[in-house]
Design brief:
One of its GO terms (molecular function) is blue light photoreceptor activity. This is BLUF domain-containing protein. InterPro entries: Acylphosphatase-like_dom_sf, BLUF_domain. It is globular, with a radius of gyration of 15 Å. The chain contains four helices and five strands. By secondary structure, it is an alpha+beta fold. Strand 2 and strand 3 form a beta hairpin. The protein has one domain: Alpha-Beta Plaits, CATH 3.30.70. Helix 3 packs antiparallel against helix 4. The relative contact order is 0.22. The structure holds flavin mononucleotide. The site of flavin mononucleotide has 14 residues, from helix 1, strand 3 and helix 2. Flavin mononucleotide binds next to helix 1, strand 3 and helix 2.
Length: about 140
Amino acid sequence: MYSLVYVSRSLLPSGQAAAEIDSIVNVSTARNAAAGVTGALLYTGTRFAQLLEGEEAAVLDIMASIARDARHCDVVTIDQGPVAARRFSRWSLVYVGHSTFAAGIVERALAENGEPDGYALRNLMRLLQELARPLAPPPEE
Ligand SMILES: Cc1cc2nc3c(=O)[nH]c(=O)nc-3n(C[C@H](O)[C@H](O)[C@H](O)COP(=O)(O)O)c2cc1C
């Protein structure tokens, strides 16, 4: 199992962001499922942060497509390598909209890029995991 986290800068005009992200989610849900890739995408209004996990070749293949995408720029991989187990059971969109709180966490993770076991990177991963947590099943009637 291989995991990759990148951060990028959104080029989406704010009026079109919701529609474009809908289309990204539609393409990604199908393509990632077919490739056995899970993870989470965070959008803060100015930045994207995404974690992808799966077979190394599948993750790198999808990452190559993402890196070519003109809807964002300054794509920086801040963490990648083998992991013991999958942390996300499905692919999910974590948040859409302006959040200075989430944007701050992403900025700090980017600033710390390359530091082994960086605190800010772990904070970003925790935010992704917390917000992407699958909904609990409905209570029994
Ligand atoms: C921020 C962002 C995240 C994306 N995440 C994914 C993803 O997880 N999976 C995916 O298949 N495409 C994703 N895309 C879309 C790809 O960049 C690309 O448009 C799509 O995979 C089609 O690939 P192709 O242009 O190489 O045919 C994302 C695009 C952006 C801008």
